[in-house]
Amino acid sequence: MRTFLKKSVFVAGLIVLSSPFISCDNNEIKKEKDLIELTENVIPINEEVDIEVIARKPIVFIAGFDKGNETFYSNARIYFQEKGLTIIDGQYSLEEIITWLNNNANQNPYGEVHIVNQSNPYKGMNLETVVRGEKITAETLRESITKGTLPSLKNIVNNKTKIVFHASGLLENEVLFKTLKDAFSAKKLPKIIASPYHTVFGGKFSNHYLAQPFYVFYPTANSPGKMDLSKEIAKKYPHEKDIHWFDALNNEEERYVGEAYTTKFSIPIKWEFDYHNTDDKMPIFTSKEEVMDWIEQHDELMVEMSKYNIPVDKFRWNWNVKNSTLVIRGRTSALCVLKPLIKPYGDLKHIEPDTSNKRLYAMK
């Protein structure tokens, strides 16, 4: 009996002595397990996770309407409808376009936004800045942005959004192109895209193609004749050897794929000078030559003329006086020879307008 008690005491002592070590081991195991679980659940704060955002399907703003026998906008509508794109009509100013984009936004950013507007580098865009406002130029658009009359894009685009302007000659005005980028400013800047070539819809051989422009000017109603104009334009573009200029100036449409043809438009200028509250003497003109001399003597007028890059003598000048106001009007007729872009190899076809092709479109 005594021996049994001794053994029991001895065993009990061993248990008591070993219990701290067992407890310690369990705690260490538990702590290690908790640490592993915690480590697995921690997400680094600075690590960016790329989440693919699905963009909305392309939409097209037909930002104008045809007048008379024009078919530019109706042809553009048909082209994009055949591609299955959503057409938006009735938005004839940049204010309306941006407002529409904001009001019709959802959780997905816009993908491609096409804006169709008939224009040329000399007359500018046929699109208003704000509703019933001035037509878009670099100056009028910058003024609208500065004054805050133009709405801002909400968080509805990202850096993959493409805003494509189908507006001829837009890239020839770099200041305007940059200002358009500022007009579409957002938290994540979209890409502004336009072509240096002329945009043509509804051609005889293609529903949509691009064409390289060449210009020659003469005073409205005082044409020197197609022969003289063909010599002048040939001298202006000596490196262009593929165009027979006289034939091109007499062509109104593309008779075979790639044939050059001519379109026509006019550029008006109007100035008013009030001499009521000035000590300056109002000039008295007796000929258009005197008007041109007077214009060339005034630097501020020549600065304005330089925006067109057209000589003063290419305008037909008229003047009249209303009370103490001198009104001077000028108008030039522009013949624009268009050379369609065709594939350099294979079958004779127009080059497909691809907005991702950097040879055809520029991106800001």
Rg to the nearest angstrom?
A: 35 Å
Spatial shape:
globular
- What's the total count of β strands? 13
Sheet/helix structural class: alpha/beta
How many domains, in number, for the residues?
Answer: 2
* End-to-end gap: 101 Å
- What string, H for helix and E for strand, traces the elements in order? HEHEHEEEHEHEEEHHEHHEEE
* Main β-sheet description: 6 strands, mixed
Separate helix tally? 9
- Average residue pLDDT: 88
**Main β-sheet, spatial strand arrangement:** 2-1-3-6-7-13
Proportion in β-strands: 15-25%
- Low-confidence runs: 1-43
Brief rundown of the structure:
The protein has 364 residues and is α/β, with parallel strands linked by helices.
Protein described:
With 364 residues, the chain is α/β, with parallel strands linked by helices. It has two domains: 59-194, no CATH class; 211-344, no CATH class. It is 32% helix and 22% strand. The chain has helices at residues 2-41, 72-82, 94-103, 138-147, 174-183, 226-236, 245-250, 288-296, 299-306, and strands at 59-62, 86-88, 112-116, 119-120, 124-125, 162-166, 191-194, 198-201, 208-219, 261-274, 316-322, 325-340, 362-363. The strands form three sheets. The protein has a six-stranded mixed β-sheet, sandwiched between helices. It is globular and about 70 Å long.
